[in-house]
């Protein structure tokens, strides 16, 4: 279970509060207006933003003091998820062993995973030679290799067209099912939330959540969500 | 969020840089109290400030028409000319001086032409020679900085000027004058600071009561008068001058800048009529002014390369032995500071700009002689001082790229937990390869050509190549001096080109 226990993030005169839990293995969307703090909340879970108050707890363990690389987290950013000077296979290798070269067995595993996400034989390419969708697949492949129980998605597919984005979300669902990961995804589009997530957290006016059933939320949106959706 | 040993490295670099510079300063200030400022010292201060001011002003004023012509005209060879204008910055000063002497000296090209038409001879030795050499060295730098200024005029404004049918006068009033008002102070102050520490130029073309800089006085006090308190006092004065000029630069521009020429799509209007030949004349004169001394060194030096005695090649070897490790130290130190998230790192990296070769040299002389013999210290001290003094240039090259690396890939690197040696080898070095190659090239070339602190310490067996060139010139062995100056420039430029090329090769986007 992921618990945000009385979490408070203050940046200047802006504050965001969250106080809820998410059961293990669920997929949860974060929606809300720009600047509401969706990404900031996610960065706090990933360890890039220090909360001013409260705790982030995963399976009973307080994550405070753990550096981003040591947290039980894989995160996909909006862009720059791959190092452009390394090949796709090398980028994936960083997911297994960030501080040494992968062994023979690990290289085989990388090839397998590339095959799994539909990038078979593309390990030797540089990211610049990939399309946007392929780059997203490579980043997901690395998350698959990392096997961390929390998968955070900070709009990594925002630049893709609707069809390609739907394809990527389905791949996320497959990856999450395979690894049993709990997913937290920032998005602007209710359709994305409906496609992937059982739960949705609405972030607005300094407050995030609690998680609500996605279908129920969009079937009968509260006033603030209506305003956001333009209904 | 840097942790462990990695966070200590910038601290260690800061400690070393700070120690070398501050310990020298402390020594200088501690010993300077025993001397009093003489009339000659005041004259040196006045000349130092005066020649720096005149050189900076002339360099900038002459650079304006050249930069404007290069901005608004497109012609074959334009890129080559801009590249050539980058050369004097890396050219060993003593080689530049030799070239200037070959053109403007007693038996130079200019005076032979004057003689042929019955004009009185122009004397290069004295304040006019010092200023001429400084302008030769720094006018191209001013042009490059102003090219950046012109390139920074937003394309929208240029389009608007075109749409409104602005003539050259209106372009000047509404676009160029405001731009120059922001660029000129920075360019002038940067050149002023460089000229304040003028040593090699003053040593060869100046001297005497009316053309001695403070740096030169420090050298004379130590080498000829053995008057250490006086040298210390002069060094303190020199530090005060540099620190004040640097503070002024900071106040005027935010940070001292050394730019590179850029290209981009929108061109300012290129007026026709007499301004066309006018621009051609400006570029042509600048080309002749910058290229002629270089050609003179090349022309005279090539013929005498085979006459060079073995001592010259030994000195060249010593220069390489100093320049390579000095460049590595400066670049590595600058890299550590550029990667440091701490705000004080910038201050540490710029600290050496306030010191000069002879100021640190004097401080180290006071601290280390005795117990050591000056000749024994010559090479290690020169290596350390060159590393410290070239560090700001490496830092300037690395800092923007290091910031971009952090902005673009800092979080990804941390999210994946790439740390320590792997982070350096797999992320930092490959991502920063281009600026690292450039920084290595610049620091090695500058260190190779440096004629400063080495003059304080060197004996017969520890002279570097720049010092040998100066001694050959002093002994009027001009053919050998030309060849040695050419070897020196060749070494500096090849080092720069080799490292810069290494940086560009396989540098991934």
From TrEMBL, chain A:
The keyword DNA-binding is annotated on this UniProt entry: no
List residues of the ABC transporter domain. Answer: 2-230
User: Which SUPFAM superfamilies does the UniProt record give?
Assistant: P-loop containing nucleoside triphosphate hydrolases
The domain of life is Bacteria
What keywords is this UniProt entry annotated with?
ATP-binding, Cell inner membrane, Cell membrane, Membrane, Nucleotide-binding, Translocase, Transport
Q: For this protein, what is any one GO molecular function term?
A: ATP hydrolysis activity
Known PANTHER family for this protein?
Answer: SPERMIDINE/PUTRESCINE IMPORT ATP-BINDING PROTEIN POTA (PTHR42781), THIAMINE IMPORT ATP-BINDING PROTEIN THIQ (PTHR42781:SF1)
- Specify the protein name: ATP-binding cassette domain-containing protein
The organism encoding this protein is Aliigemmobacter aestuarii
Q: What phylogenetic lineage does the species belong to?
A: Bacteria, Pseudomonadati, Pseudomonadota, Alphaproteobacteria, Rhodobacterales
UniProtKB/TrEMBL annotation, chain B:
Q: Biological process GO annotation list?
A: transmembrane transport
Coiled coil start-end = none
What InterPro entries has UniProt attached to this entry? MetI-like (IPR000515), MetI-like_sf (IPR035906)
Keyword Mitochondrion in the entry? The reply is no
Q: Where is the ABC transmembrane type-1 domain?
A: 45-252, 312-499
UniProt keyword annotations, A-Z: Cell membrane, Membrane, Transmembrane, Transmembrane helix, Transport
Topological category with respect to the lipid bilayer? Multi-pass membrane protein
Q: Would you tell me the Gene Ontology cellular component terms?
A: plasma membrane
Q: By its UniProt entry, which Gene3D superfamilies does this protein fall under? A: MetI-like (1.10.3720.10)
Q: Would the keyword rRNA-binding turn up in this protein's UniProt record? A: no
Q: Where in the cell is it found?
A: Cell membrane
Give the residue spans that cross the bilayer.
49-70, 82-105, 117-137, 183-205, 233-259, 280-299, 319-340, 347-369, 375-395, 436-458, 481-502
The name on file for this protein is Thiamine/thiamine pyrophosphate ABC transporter permease ThiP
Give the source species: Aliigemmobacter aestuarii
